[in-house]
Amino acid sequence: MVMANILESFGFFxxxxxxxxxxxxxxxxxxFWLVNLLCFLMTLFFNNDGxxxxxxxxxxxxxxxxxxxxxxxxxxxxxxxxxxxxSSAPIGVSNIVNLIALKIVDMSLYMNAAMxxxxxxxxxxVMVSLLYLHFRENLPRTINTAPVGPSEHPILGHHPHHYPPxxxxxxxxxxxxxxxxxxxxxxxAQPSFLQRLSDPKEKNKxxxxxxxxxxxxxxxxxxxxxxxxxxxxxxxxxxxxxLTLTKMHLAPLALKISxxxxxxxxxxxxxxxxxxxxxxLMWMHICRKGKVKISWSRYIRTTIVVxxxxxxxxxxxxxxxxxxxx
Length: 326
What we know:
Layout (H helix, E strand, L loop, with lengths): L1 H8 L2 H13 L3 H18 L2 H18 L4 H17 L9 H9 L4 H27 L31 H13 L3 H6 L2 H8 L1 H33 L1 H13 L5 H16 L10 H12 L6 H30 L1
Helix pairs in contact: 2-3, 2-4, 3-4, 3-5, 4-5, 4-14, 5-7, 5-14, 6-12, 7-15, 11-12, 11-13, 11-15, 12-13, 13-15
């Protein structure tokens, strides 16, 4: 919340809205994909809650200045919120509860990224594609892409002062520095793990454990955590799921893989209902303050056809991805 206020104070929201409008080049479809890319990157740089607090006001400013009516704004706002929240799955630092649970299962951020980044990112691509198919009839083909310019903030209600013209360079450098670390470096950070797998007998043992435990954990523990997340909130659900796994006396690697399946259920499966995550509840509140009301029924009509397919696909890719790594 402090970061959102700081960014808003020097006009970052206005600058980002202008940049997205310019890159859209008058296409409502291109705008849809840019909005989801923006939400994805914001979650990687900050976290899912911070991404919601930052991107939602940006989108409200952008869509309002483009002259879109409230019902025309919903596809962009809803897809952006789902992407921002689900994007906490690829890396462990994008969700505070993921960090706590990583410590419980004794899993490093490097191993988490090596096993999780590819499956969850592919899952996000599937989710956004499904959202596009779901909303494509409601997306405007052409939009007004004139610079947004200074505008009243949809939540705070005051005019930001200015925005720095050279900010893109800083953002690009930060992203390039983050993306420069290859996946192989993350895997190589686990020497003892790889040494154990160099022995054929140990490798066969680990593979058998993966095939035995991953199937059950990905589709049973993952489903249970998804259900608990939607009923109680994803934070306590993930903690309960993680603590339960630690009491099952699993092999260390099987424990970590089972944990990753619960993360998918917690970060993605929790999006089925608005109360599944704190980020989603904050998003609905910000949209309401910005005079765009999105009912629970409207939300669920979208997630019911998108989220189950997304998490099933992500669990399946996780299964085959980890099997390939081993």
